[in-house]
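[READ THE FOLD]
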Amino acid sequence: MNLQPIKIKDISKNQLQLIMKRSMQDISSIYEYVKNIVDDVKNQGDKAIIKGLKSFGYKESIDIEDIKVDKTDIEDAYTKVSKEVVNDIKAAANNIKKFHEAQLEKQMWCIEIIDGIIVGRITRAIENVGCYVPGGTAAYPSTVLMTVIPAKVAGVKNIILTTPPMKEMSINPLVLIAADIAGVDKIFKVGGPWGIAGLAFGTETIPKVDKIVGPGNKYVTAAKMVVYGIVDIDSPAGPSESLILADETGNPEWIAVDFLSQIEHDPDSSAILITTKFDLANKVCNIINKRYETLSRKEIFRSSLFKYSHVLIADDIDEAINFINEYAPEHLQIVTKDVFVVLNKIKHAGSIFLGPYAPVPVGDYASGTNHVLPTAKGARMFSGLSVDDFIKKPTFQYLSKKGLESLKDVVIRLAEQEGLPIHAESIKVRF
């Protein structure tokens, strides 16, 4: 590996476009394939779910009872995991709960616009939510906590979790324990587009939900795009990405490890370091190049380092911040003298980690903030998952006769200007 620093001002226009685009997921090539799966589940329900599981090599004799998780499955999971790890999950869950409880707003507010007209807004939880958790050969109990706990805090009545099972139709015990601790109502062993479609339309076995949240591969993302409008979804998410801003106070060894930690997820992950100090950039590159030789899973690191990862040198902090705001990273680490001064200048980022003792993995697991975050410039328009994703805010108005009379002529004239005479008549008839 020969990672080398490059000055931002020396980056060509084409190279800059590639850096900014990074691993934006193109689902166009698989959209029709995924849509056919979704339509199959919509039309055939459980039958399509079973057919999908069999197509992926699960046991031939599988039936619909095999996709359900019952109380004994969860009890059995606790026997397979040490008490220490269970307590770790509980500690992380407690921090996540505290952070999201702080996001709760007033249940209602109102103001008197003018004499006799009171307007306001109420807060109501979405009733039914589906949480998708990637699975199969991997296990992500942290994603269970990050998706379920905000919904629970918001007051969601029914929380349904779907996750791909392992080949023997079992779920990793860590996922089941996290689901139990977080307060999931029902769990189903269904993944990919079949899991998303099952949640969106409901089947004979899987309840229909109103919103689906949670990360997944491009097939999951495509399925969520297909069902959007039938249900709400969170923001589309792609491979993990991280940007580190550091000055001379940064520890090169720590920064190098943080850089590598964010590209071990996926071959399409990306990591960027921006610094105003050539010496720091050079040291970090040397450490990464040396560590690369001892890494396992080299194929993942090689892909990420060659395709989407860079060490950049800015002429000054303002050039660095301008780059960051254009890049809009999923994760942003700020390792500078005055982290809060820099924070005030950041416009677009999914989650921000301040200081040398706030590496991204602490937010992935246990500091309390959410790790379901927008990627691929999504932070320019989306926020990370929060309590807000699980609530609705209907507005209301109360008008006295005097209040309506004060607006009577305004509404009548505007309605008539828009060619809606019955709208005007609904006001006139009251006087």
Remarks:
- The longest helix spans residues 83-101.
- Residues 401-428 form one domain.
- The CA atoms of residues 167 and 418 lie 61 Å apart.
